[in-house]
Amino acid sequence: MASVGSGVNLEDVPSVDLMSELLRRMKCSSKPDKRLILIGPPGSGKGTQSPIIKDEYCLCHLATGDMLRAAVAAKTPLGLKAKEAMDKGELVSDDLVVGIIDEAMKKPSCQKGFILDGFPRTVVQAQKLDEMLEKQGVKVDKVLNFAIGDAILEERITGRWIHPSSGRTYHTKFAPPKNPGIDDITGEPLIQRKDDTAAVLKSRLEAFHKQTEPVIDYYSKKGIVANLPAEKPPKEVTAEVQKVLSS
């Protein structure tokens, strides 16, 4: 929804849009504040659940990669520092990323809280995030851990095949094409994404376990981790999420 500050005249916004935004805000005002972190390996279903959680609890979705790109594009002081690091091929420092999260949290859309995805990846990042939130008098409420066995993930991901020109996706086990390796509609060959091979997945999973499992332990000690059965169908995972967040 455009604000007056961005050069949009509210008189030009259709009434139905204004009304639905007002209704949304009224509905949101009664929701409890939530600050959530989503943790899980690639393919665990975080991307499916986060928009549902975002809408249900009126939270903003903070994906650190997108935020960094936005800060760089907007040439904010932190964005310029981040660009400098990226141009040198260096990693953007934890302090910078936490600063960018700090800035993003001040937006009206983050009034009720946020979903953090892709951060923190290390215990040091988690500590820095906690320090920053503490200064604002808030804390992380829940860490949703999308727990899933590596073998299930491997089957889920390495079975994915795509029809490149339409984006249609198939799965050798769960949604196979009528003829193996062939798109149902055009009869053209299907391809597998480079990231979807067993070898790539194995190295991504190793990195995930090494870096991120200590983060889960860190938050477990604070008693705020909820383990979700991420191997279940999406609707069941959604029901589990709602149960966890309503308690």
Automatic annotation (TrEMBL):
One GO molecular function term of this record is:
ATP binding
Q: Does the keyword Transferase apply?
A: yes
> What are the Adenylate kinase active site lid domain coordinates in residue numbering?
160-195
Looking up PROSITE patterns in the UniProt record yields: ADENYLATE_KINASE
Enzyme class, one word? transferase
Task of the protein: Catalyzes the reversible transfer of the terminal phosphate group between ATP and AMP. Plays an important role in cellular energy homeostasis and in adenine nucleotide metabolism.
Q: Give the protein family.
A: Belongs to the adenylate kinase family.
Protein name per UniProt: adenylate kinase
* Species the sequence originates in: Punica granatum
